[in-house]
Amino acid sequence: MSQSNHETASIGRYLVDRIAGLGVEHVFGIPGDYVLGLYKILETESPIKLVGTTREDAAGYAADAYARIKGLGCVCVTYCVGGLSAANSVAGAFAEKSPVIVLSGSPGLNERARNPLLHHKVKTFETQYDVFRQFTAASAVLDRPETAFAEIDRVLDAAVRYKRPVYLELPRDLVHVVPGAPHRRERVVPKSDPGALREALDEARAMLTAAKRPMILADAEVHRFHLQDDLIDLAESTGMPFATTILGKSVASESHPLFAGMYEGAMGRAEVTEFVESSDCLLMLGCFLTDINLGAFTAKLDPSRCIDATSEHVRIRRAEYPDVRLDDFMQGLIERKLVVARTPPPPRVNPFADVDMGAADSPTTSAKVFARINRLLTETTGTTVIADVGDSLFGSADLEMDRRTEFLCPAYYASMGFSVPAAVGTNVANPSSRVVVIVGDGAFQMTGMELSTAARHGFNPIVVILNNHGYTTERFLLDGSFNDVHPWRFHEIPKVLGTGKGFEVRTAGELDEALIAAWANTASFSVVNVHLDKLDHSPALERLTSRLSKVVRGESDGR
Predict the structure, then answer these.
(1) DSSP, residue by residue, 104-154
(2) Which of 188, 221, 369, 424 has the fewest CB atoms lying closer than 10 Å?
(3) pLDDT-derived band of residue 473, with 50, 70 and 90 as boundaries?
(4) Which pLDDT tens digit goes with each residue over 71-123?
């Protein structure tokens, strides 16, 4: 939009045009009277397509997944009942650095005279704004026409810079207001401090070239900032092997000859854990040092041997270099053409080679489910796996991802119910990808009926439900009837929605037949209801929960 057009644009139109200009092609949400004016602009005056969902929190999960794939997502909701419903999913996006723009309508300024009790209001007219300020990188209420355009620019720039959610609230009587004053957008791209960048690169080069076993540990921010090509360039130009964490899974092809495996502390494969922890110089790129990534803090990473570079800081040994961008740091290392010692990664092994599928009539187990899904992934292409929280996540860790950004999960914030709405966002962002969802029965009951949105748009995800009658992870932490859920006939959901195919699985043979039929069903979604024993679990879950249960019972000092 030119400067002259700025002078005739309404606040709502400028906001929508700026979002479209950032590459956002779809907005998720549910309309409400306070935001209808903005919805109408989105529908009739922009190229953006609206994707209606069944719940606001599900819209947030969908926008989160869309952002992880496309680089920026957007959710548009009404005041308080909509915004506060989406708060949990937006908080998860903040925790895991997924840039979701939250657009909310609110009561008009003229309606607020004498503080009336308008519908949807909670405490004050600022309550929703105060809530979202706690988990957004920038936020603004666009209640002053003369500053609205500048505030929109400031907030959207923060989403791009920090890869975290932002919040913009627009009173409904200002949607069509034209500020009138000239506006020139200031395109400010913060650069790295040259001196700090040079010193950080000098120190990093010295450590890496002196090391006998240098390697790279890549994580989520390499995804978020689209630095995958730089990661591969750095690894291949130096010969350094690279590993990932669960949040960084599929940041690069796991069939790459320099891929060393996924690092999870004591929860991971022993040979990968030993390989990473024996490195005398670990180049950590975009890492989240969370309890899940580090196997309940069983990881043994010596800070004195680490170069820790993220979008917010660069730390080398115990020194910190301020104002150094992650992309500048990675590119600087590539340009220095480092010559380092080369250590071959451990041999790749089939993580499911030891799983005995048994006879066709043998009962299903989680190990068999993941082994069969892994075979499906190796036999097909163009698949995205979305794992929900619990054993769905831990069991998925060993799945072999041959291309990048093929695996999505909420591994840090760990909000149950992420996966099915995320499948909608993934299908919208990448229609050519076939989505496989792995979700527990408890998590599915939270948001699984978002399959209605998938049906509405003709999407064809395969939803594998690990049906073990409750919250298995919690059972191993502290058992009780509170971990049980009411049984659903999940395979009959297609009857409710009038489309889709359902499969009930109790044996290894039925599992094989169901996955083959589900993959062949490209016209609609498929639900595979896999019955498991209530205490069935993956080896990774057993290792993790044995550690965490001591903390829950107060038997550990947390170290």
Answers:
(1) EEE--GGGGTT----TT--SSTTHHHHHHHTT-SEEEE---HHHHHHHHHH
(2) 188
(3) confident
(4) 999 999 999 999 999 999 999 999 999 999 999 999 998 888 878 888 788 88
Please identify which residue in the block is written with the tokens 């790129």: 285
User: CA 322 to CA 332: how far, in whole Å?
Assistant: 16
H, E, C per residue of 168-208: EEEEHHHCCCCCCCCCCCCCCCCCCCHHHHHHHHHHHHHHH
- Please give the DSSP secondary-structure letter assigned to residue 252: S
Measured CA to CA, the distance from residue 110 to residue 172 in angstroms comes to 10
Residue 516: which residues within 8 A CB-CB, separation 6 or more?
none
Separation CA 444–CA 466 (nearest Å): 9
Determine which helix (DSSP H) or strand (DSSP E) holds 233, and give its type and residue range. Answer: helix 228-238
Helices (H) and strands (E) in the chain, counts: 21, 19
- Round to whole Å and give the CA distance between 94 and 28: 17
Q: Return the amino acid letter for 358.
A: G
Q: Which residue is it, tokens 């790279």?
A: 216
Please report how many Cα atoms fall inside a 13 Å half-sphere around the Cα of residue 307, on the Cβ side.
26
- Mean of all residue pLDDT scores within the chain: 90
Token representation of residue 513: 């037949």
Please report, rounded to a whole number, the percentage of residues in the chain having pLDDT higher than 90. Answer: 70
CA atoms of 372 and 114, how far apart (whole Å): 64
Q: Which residue has the tokens 């966002």?
A: 425
Which residue(s) pair with 103 in the sheet?
76, 168
* Helices 56-70 and 419-429: angle between axes, nearest 10 degrees: 50
Helix (H) or strand (E) holding 365: none
Of 448, 445, 484, which is closest to residue 468 (Cα–Cα)? 484
- The size of the chain, in residues, is 559
Reported as a single tens digit per residue, the pLDDT across 170-200 is 999 999 999 988 888 877 678 899 999 999 9
CA–chain centroid gap for 545, Å, is 23
Tell which residue, 551, 548, 479, has the closest CA to residue 265: 548
Helix (H) or strand (E) holding 337: none
Whether pTM exceeds 0.85: yes
Tell me the pLDDT tens digit for each residue of 204-261.
999 999 999 999 999 999 999 999 999 999 999 999 999 998 888 989 988 899 999 9
- The pairing of beta strand 100-106 with beta strand 73-77: parallel
